[in-house]
Here is the input.
Amino acid sequence: MANAPQNDARSGGAKPITQSRRPNKKCLCRNATVMIGVAILLVLCVHWHLAINHMRDLPSHHDLFRASFSSSRSSSTSSSPRQKEQASIGYPSRDSSKTEEGGVTPYITSDICGECFRSLFDTRQCYTIMARDVKKLGLTLSKAAEKLGHESKNCQMCHPQHCWDHYFNNTNANTNSTQQQQPNYYGSGHKSKYWRFDTASPKFTNPITLTLPSIPDELRMPPSRFHDIGAYFTEKFEFATKFNKSMDYLVEYNPGIVAIPTNMKPNLPTEATYLLSLRVTPANNCFSTKVYEKLPQTVWDAVYYTSTNHLGLALLDENYQMLPGYDVVIELDVPLDLKRSTDSKAGDSVSPTFMDYRIFLLNDRIYLHANADTVVVSPLSLRAKGYGDYVEHTTNTDHCAFVAEEAGGNGSWDKPCLLHNLYGGTGLQVTLLRQFNTVWSGGSNGKNYALFAVPDATDPGGNAPDSIYAEIDIFPHRIQRILPDEHDRISKGDVFGLIWKKGTKKRRNFKIDRVNMRQVREVGNATKSEDVLPPRSFWTVDAHEDWFPGEPVFKESAHG
Here is the structure.
């Protein structure tokens, strides 16, 4: 083919081609110029892409509202399955364009602004109504927020556009007069920002996870079943149903800790510095939500609602290490003859008498706080085998089961008794100093009160015991001064009046009423805050000094 004739337009004849053409110098220069131009164009495109995808998210320090939002657009073109799932249901998701050193995202983003989460529908949080619509109507959380914000005046801030208008397009707001109204929320590419707990929380200096060695191994969930824990729960339920037993596994959580008072130390090991409390029960929410949602209703009920709720206690040293041989699991309701009986009312056989144990150090005494119908309290004392007056005390003090039996149906007694260690042996002996008293200050729905003590204002010399208060409400904030070791006896009719809910049966036969009739004595009236919510600055967790150069981190009007 190299010698094939070719037409020559200039000569009209054919000339044989015997060699290739020589390179044209002008053509080479032209090609090089084109290649350099393309390279420059590519560099400019890359820089333009970076500027659009990264710089457009940086807030202006003159624009407070925009800085409290995060661009929903990311420099990443792909999302993990988990991120896609979160986006599809409307839950807050991480903004991958904002990362700290090491690639940890400092906040999550959501269409729903913080004012929505702080608003009340009636006595209920707006979020509760949204969650209901998500479950019953199959809406995403974002759509449920729009629906509620449109339908409810109290919850109007749940609608993203309403929140945007309130903070950004509010002409009455105290903003720069030159600031122009900004575009519609939808399509703006910005969402509310919320600090992640592990970013905003105080830094942990000595973290430790504690479990109770006294719990038998056969009552532990085997790690080999974590991957199919739903099947494990079902198996345990079937076994419990067949043999009429409780779910036969235990987990511990809800830790509390107090320093051991000086007056108890002679009866304890020298290393004992703190007392740890834990709730020990089969009831748990330790795994992913999907695990529990897939459980049959009967299994779900058995996992969440169980009468087995024990108290776990342990001695710790100054480094928060557990002292071997000094941890116990205590059963309270059976020895005190307070367990709900199966003939009280249908379904009550699985309702716990006590749950959510907490301990407080008040006036050099350790108080046990538990949730029953409402909050009950009683002081404790501790002794360890081989120390102090252990032998004398355990010999001369009756067990609580005997004291409760002696009290009979009255169920009221005010002398010390020894609590029964279900697990852990006799290394640590715990004494309940009297029957529980009930704090009725917060009504029948009270739970998880914070108990605290302050110096007695009427004693300038500082010789009187501290005044003890119960924090019974947060929104609005209410505290009540109480005398936890003193009680006024009220009637069963009074208890019924405090607890009965309209529409329920007008009868009641619970042993816990023996405790409910011992009403903690109150001093004066409850102190109530004037504001339903704390100042906005308390909620301002979405502002960061890097986003507001030269300005305070937290601001009165910041959003989210």
In short: Residues 25-54 form the longest helix (30 residues). The mean pLDDT is 77. The longest strand covers residues 478-489.
